[in-house]
Amino acid sequence: MITQLITMNGHGIYVWASFAVVLVSCSIFYFKTKKTLKKYEKEYLIELKKLAEVDRQILLKKSKIANNIYASSNKAN
Predict the structure, then answer these.
(1) How many CB atoms lie within 10 A of CB 33?
(2) Confidence band (pLDDT; 50, 70, 90) for 35?
(3) What is the pLDDT of residue 77?
(4) 73 near 46, Cβ under 8 Å?
(5) What is the signed CA dihedral for 53, 55, 60, 65, rounded to 10 degrees?
(6) What is the per-residue pLDDT for 1?
(7) How far apart are CA 54 and CA 41, in angstroms?
(8) Phi and psi at residue 42, in whole multiples of 5°?
(9) Coil, strand or helix at 51
């Protein structure tokens, strides 16, 4: 039964190769996107730290994303 699943009546090589190509493509896309997001988060954090304390607190109260970025940077330090 397992060999039939792998061979798929002679078409298995094409099916499994296409799965592999899709898996590799999605992995590359995921890691490139993750790297870019981290870069933008660092740039945003630098800009956030340049703000005055009062303005920073107002922004952190209004924005969940800014709050998450700021909190995660404080945990890392």
Answers:
(1) 10
(2) very high
(3) 64
(4) no
(5) -120
(6) 85
(7) 21
(8) -65, -45
(9) coil
pLDDT tens per residue across span 5-34: 888 989 999 999 999 999 999 999 999 999
Are 19 and 12 within 8 A, CB to CB?
A: no
Residue with tokens 């981290």: 38
| 60 close to 70: Cβ distance less than 8 angstroms | yes
The reported pLDDT for the residue numbered 2 is: 87
Would you tell me how many other CB atoms lie within 10 Å of the CB of residue 16? 13
Predicted TM-score (pTM) of this structure = 0.73
> Taking the chain, what is the end-to-end CA distance rounded to the nearest angstrom?
54
Could you tell me if 68 and 60 are in contact, meaning their C-beta atoms sit under 8 angstroms apart? no
Q: Which two tokens stand for residue 48?
A: 């956030």
Beta strands in the chain, from DSSP E residues, in sequence order: none
